[in-house]
Amino acid sequence: MSALHTRARIAGLLYVLLAIAAPLRLLYIPTTLIVRGDPSTTAANIAAHEALFRWGIVSDLFVGTILIFVVLALYRLLSPVNRSLAVLMVILGGLLPSVIYFLNTVNDAAALALINGAPYLDVFDKAQREALALLFLHLHGQVVTAAEWLWGIWLIPLAILVFHSGFLPRFFGVWLALNGLAYIAQCLLGFLAPGYDSGRFDTLFLVLQLGEVAFMLWMLIFGARRYLFRKTAQERA
To answer: What is the pTM of this model?
Structure first.
C-alpha cells in the first residue's frame, strides 16, 4: 500500500468521524429539544434530557478538535499539488471553524445555567430565565449560520486541489465546489432573508452537500490511485 493511498484513507477516516459526531448538536438536538418561540417547552425538554444536551456540548468540542486533524491530513495529502492553496484550506477549514465551535459552546453553557437556575440567577424569575435561555440557544444557531460561510469557502481551495491532484476523481472537485457554494448560499439566506421558505431549496442543497459525504467515503474506501498521479506528473513534464 503506497504512502499516498494510506494518507487518503486516513484523511477519509478522520473526515467520517467528523461527519458522525457533528449532527448530534447540529441537527438532532435542535429538532428534538428546542422548540422555536416556546421558552417554557424548550427549557422543560432540556431539563428532562440534560445528559443529551451536555453530550451536545461535548460533541461540539470533539468536532472542533478533530476538525484540525482532518484538515492537517488533507494538507499532507494535497500540499504537493499546490502548497499555497493547501495552507488556505487549513486556515479556512480548520483553524477558524475550530475556534467558532469552541466559542459557541459558551452559548449552550449559558442556556443550561439559566435552565438549571443557579442561585446567582435568582434576580430573574423562571419565565425570564427560560426566555434568556432560548435567546442563547438562538445565538448558538446564528453562530452556526455564520460558520456556514467558512464551511463553504474552505471547500473552494479543497475542490481546486482535488480537481488538479491527478490521484482523486476530478468530478469530486466540481461537486465539492458546488457543495461550498450551497453552504455560502445558506449563510446568505439565513442572514439576508431569515423568513424565506427553506423548503424551496432544501432538496437542492442536500444533493449538493452530499459532495463532502461522497468524497470522504471515496477516500476511506478507495484511497488514492498512484498510477493516476504518475500519469499526471508525466503529462505536466
So the answer is: 0.89
